[in-house]
Amino acid sequence: MKLFSVLPLIIVSTLLMFSACSEHPPFSGDSFELVKQRGYGTLTVVYIPAEGFAYIDDRGKLTGVTIDIMEEFRDFLDVSMGLDITYEFVTADRFQQFYSDIKNSEGGVFGLGNVTITEARKLELRFSPPYLTNIAVLITNDSVSELSEMSEIGQQFAGMSGLAFEGTLHQDRIERLIANYIPGTPVEFAGSNTQILNMLSERDDLFAYIDIYNFWRAVERGKPLRQHAAGDLASERFGIIMPLNSDWQPVITDFFERGVGFRTSSVYRSILERHLGEELTEKLESAREAVIGD
Fold it and tell me: Are strands 62-63 and 55-56 parallel, antiparallel or unpaired?
């Protein structure tokens, strides 16, 4: 083969390699070290819209539990360290892309997506201390009789299919439930919590796991859904995520743990009640108290 015939291939390959190496991270923000030196800085906050947690209110303002917690963190940096922080908020649509983007970002980037803290994920991301103890609830259409205990699921859910939010821990839960109680049961997949709630509202042959606040809001809006408390799982905790290269984790940990602890404060309680309501707040806080070490 003549040299000039392979030169275009070499050039293209080199350009592709250079392009891949020079790609910018999805998001970036100022490091804590830089902010501490200058006294000011900009942090990027990426959030998945979620009712109660990160949403636009009637006045067009971004608010919610996780947004308010980040605002309290900003006040903490101002009061305790004299740092002037600006947030750049970015909306994310899909959980898997959101997770990957935060993992591959640099510096002062924070992700708000109600991400469950797991040991496996700690190898890929940095986490804040837990800001919420979640209850994952097993739900169906309300035409399905309530399970009194999980040993009855093989009989009561016979002929039904599992429904899972693909790529989340709820998929793991559904698959584990099926393996333990009703092997061979088929699984269908959804791309959002809203899709799961709509599908269960329209069909009586599906069961799914979903976070309790999603179920709670759907029932308030009149969705025909039933919770099967025998299948409730109340041991998972949500954390704010950061890329592994972030030096902000010790700082946000200090925010959560200083003094009596942010989650035992009246400010934290008022944030939950304002966005989730008193009854749901009480359920979630009771779950927190039941989890040792939270």
Answer: antiparallel
Fold (CATH) for 28-133+237-290: D-Maltodextrin-Binding Protein; domain 2 (3.40.190)
What long-range pairs does 188-196 form, CB within 8 A, spacing at least 24?
Answer: 188/161, 188/162, 188/163, 188/164, 189/163, 189/164, 189/165, 190/163, 190/164, 190/165, 190/166, 191/94, 191/165, 191/166, 192/165, 193/165, 196/163, 196/165
Cβ-contact 65, 271 below 8 angstroms:
yes
Instruction: Specify the domain boundaries for CATH 3.40.190.10 within the chain.
Output: 28-133+237-290, 135-235
Q: What is the mean pLDDT of residues 184-204?
A: 94
Q: Is the whole model's pTM more than 0.85, yes or no?
A: no
Which CATH topology does 135-235 take?
A: D-Maltodextrin-Binding Protein; domain 2 (3.40.190)
Q: State residue 167's pLDDT score.
A: 80
Asked if 28 contacts 107 with a C-beta cutoff of 8 angstroms, the reply is yes
| pLDDT score, position 9 | 45
Q: Would you call 104 exposed, middle or buried from its count of C-beta atoms within 10 A (0-12, 13-18, 19+)? A: middle
CB 173 within 8 A of CB 198: no
State the chain's mean pLDDT as an integer: 90
Chain centroid to Cα 90, Å, comes to: 15
Does residue 92 have a pLDDT over 80? yes
Say what the pLDDT of residue 290 is. 64
- Using the predicted structure, report yes or no on whether residue 198 has a pLDDT greater than 60: yes
Please state, in angstroms and rounded to a whole number, the distance separating the CA atoms of residues 269 and 46.
24
Measured between alpha carbons, how far is 86 from 243 in angstroms, rounded to an integer? 19
